Amino acid sequence: MKEWWQTRCGTRARTAPSFSTSALTWLEAGGVYVVTNLRGGGEYGRQWHEAGMLGQKQNVFDDFIAAAEYLIEEGYTTAEKLANIWAEEYGSSDDPEQFKYLQAYSPYHNIKQGVKYPAFLVTGGENDARVDPLHARKISTWGHFVHRE
Predict the structure, then answer these.
(1) Which member of 21, 36, 55, 117 has the lowest number of beta carbons within 10 Å of its beta carbon?
(2) SS3 state at 5
(3) Is 6 helix (H, G, I), strand (E, B) or coil?
């Protein structure tokens, strides 16, 4: 069984139900399609949105982990197969207080030597104004280096 997991969070934008021919094709091919509305999104109002901002950003990751654990426990996927295919919500590295929690959940800053990580896909867009594509290249290179050690 293959998984296609889409997450919704990080902006006030609300995600309305919609039809996706790509998702339908995926399902018809035997895949599992999951959409998670994590804290930080606008689906459940302002309080829900703020519960995933700035110093509360860890809630977003906790929600994501809880969703993954549920899917594993219910037999939709396994830990081995599961893959997780900045602005005011995330904070600023220029602010010393915000930098602390940014660094705490930064994938790049938390890669550890000697840990065997699953394969991952990193994407970055040349026209994405939020994140320079260099960051995607940087974590891919560092992840490759750690695996080769």
Answers:
(1) 21
(2) strand
(3) strand
